[in-house]
Amino acid sequence: MLAQAPVISFDTVISGLSQPIEVVHAGDSSGRIFIVQKGGAVRVYNKDYSFRRNFLVVTGISTLGEQGLLSLAFHPDYKNNGFLYVYYANSGGDLELARYRISANPDSVNVASRVILKTIPHPTNTNHNGGELHFGPEGYLYLSTGDGGGGGDVPNNAQNTSVLLGKMLRFAVDTTSVAPYYTVPADNPFGNEIFAYGLRNPFRWSFDRLNYDMWIGDVGQDRFEEVNHRRYDSTRGINYGWRCYEGGAAYNSSGCGPAANYTFPVYTYALPPSGGGSGSITGGNVYRGELYPDLKGYYLAADYTSGRFYKIKFDSVANTYDTSTQVVLPGGIVDFGETEEGELYATNLNNGRLLRIVSSGPVHYTFNGNGNWDIASNWMGNKIPPATLPVNCKIIIRPSAGGECVLNVQQTVPAGTEIIVENDKQFRINGNLTIQ
Ligand SMILES: [Ca+2]
Ligand SMILES: [Ca+2]
To answer: What is the pTM of this model?
Structure first.
């Protein structure tokens, strides 16, 4: 019998945003939080959620319907090369992948550095653009695209392996320094940018940071929303079924092969009952943070419309999925993203908020800054221990490189609390540590 899934809630940490559509980090050890807004601006915040400045404003985009600035990814070697990639609908409504470079100011992108890697025609409709960017472990850039929109994928783009719509694409971006600044990886399955296909609108997807398993939330037509999951070594060339199938149900069999040709979702849900309008899945992430040990290994996703929240735990030995749901109102969640520390956040498009994912389970407090105990930003996720600790928690002292942790306040801990000081780290007690 599996333990019950942790109860989730949201903690508003930033408000007053304008249509925040994605939250990402730079992977440069700065701890900064980057919030992508649909209208084209990217805002940068300190890890304690204080605003630094506008990092970038992407111009020449269309923001009609589902269009806008949709995603940002930092190059794995961003710290050294300063490259970042954005994905948006351009002023003509076509899908575009572009690269920028940071300026001398680490909080400000050089807007003149923009180069276009790829423009994908997306005529007729403003919906189903995808898409999210992530780098894989081999340094390739992955991008999900929608099927071209409208409904039912009338042109059958998603099953067409010579059209880049309704796909997971993959680009090698370190192989050339001349236009178009990428090449097609030699082992892409169709000799073009396509890596996997048969997707309808994979608006939000992620890699599991632990093992690079790929989790794709694919927005359904009229009946089912779906979650697709593949282990890293078995994602290449996969056909996820659309428009032959919506979820596990046949949708349009014209030109389709036997069911064995398709890879079906690991989880589907029927559209929410009437009252909430049609649903739309926002694919999330597997929690790999440290604050909430009970939440580790859970994949979290949300329904944009209903505010329902989906928790899926994959058992890689038994190859089974334990799933549960919870209502976490309001709706409007359009992205889940991680900090460098692996803590999970979500953005709410409708009320302009960045939300921290909180679990009701026991908390681990990890000191990973430098200096005094009573500074919130010295603690992972800004989660500072209360003056009297709750029972059943753990304290991990892991100061940043060359740093130390100084307990400078009165701190009461229940007997039995584990305090772990990691190897070769300094923990000085200048206040009072009271064992209760
Ligand atoms: Ca599918
Ligand atoms: Ca995301």
So the answer is: 0.94
